Fold this protein.
Amino acid sequence: MIRILAGVALGLAAVQVGSHGSWVHILWSAPLIVGSAFLIAWGAEAMQFMVSQGLALAMLAWLQTLPEFAVEADIAWNAARHTPGYSDHLVTANFTGSIRLLMGFGMPMVYFIRAWIQRKRKKGGEKWITLDPFHSVEIVSLFPPTIYFFFIVYRGRLDLLDSVVLLGFYVMYMFLLLKMPPEKEDESVEDLPWVSRMVLRRGRIGRIVGVAAIFVGGGLILYLCVHPFVNSLQALAGLVGISGYFFIQWIAPFMSEFPEKVSAFGWATQDGKAKMGLMNFLSSNINQMTMLVAMIPIVYALSSGRWNAPILFTEDQKEEVLLTATQAALCMILLFNMKFEWWEAVGMFVLWILQFTSMIWEDDLGMQAHTVRHYSIFVNLGWTALEIFLALLKIRRWDFPFRMGAPRGPASP
């Protein structure tokens, strides 16, 4: 399968050279981007059972978001070289959309799917998703990059200093994870996708070769397809009369993160595993708010050939990054009680839908579209302040068991 997909990618990549920037290339580049993401995800899931926990954590953090990294790197590289169709303005589109998609769409959908399954099976029980004590590591690790995003907005630029700071936050996150005691495995080999299971059933050498082949195949397809994919998205945006920024912000991350969403939504259908789906999205958020954003100035500097080449933000870019920061702050505060409840899922989803639709109808709505996003920032901040106020009054309880020695066994669903 890997050889077939790689061959198709090679052939079509050669064809697209003759007709650069055509929207038609979305017909082959999008499926291959999704296919490469699935391959990398299958390889990553198999690798969990082959290496030490610490090494697995370090590698999985990169591998799970590799397609998103590839799209962002392509945009930053070409923006620095002033390639036609690319600009510094697009640099913030992909990561702001990706982060908000995980929080505003992914996490609520995990709750909705779990609630629907419970109702379908006529099961009672809690109306919220309860997190395990050790999940507080992810929640507290979201705090530093979220606060730093506000500082990035204040500075109005992204440069190598930001890369150093954000990579430092990621190292701290990994340190906390490695200090935690081993957790009891909720997943066995039989729970893995078919491809991952087939690889793990081989001998030691066969497993190593199989996982390596999956990663090489997925990476090769990704490398060949990411530039035609981004170009075709912009061409398609022009064809349908919608902003190219919208397509890069929402469509690109939706496709590149598709396998991750499939896994998380699959966990939501299983008893006691909805919390894994939530934490999958939260962990990806941390990776993207640290490593992904840190990568952008590095790629930009390498492409431009100047190490003092900051990416200067427009007012619109500042607003997009600020909206992302306030949404991350709200998400973090809502999880401080180690539960995810129905009104939180509904509220976050409604806020995301308003942002999403305002971008679709931006040409028709004009300034009203900007007003929707502008007011969304204040709603996020107001809701966050309300949660803090209720916690101070002890109306809302923050059950936040962040302890280095906290047990990592399974808790309630």
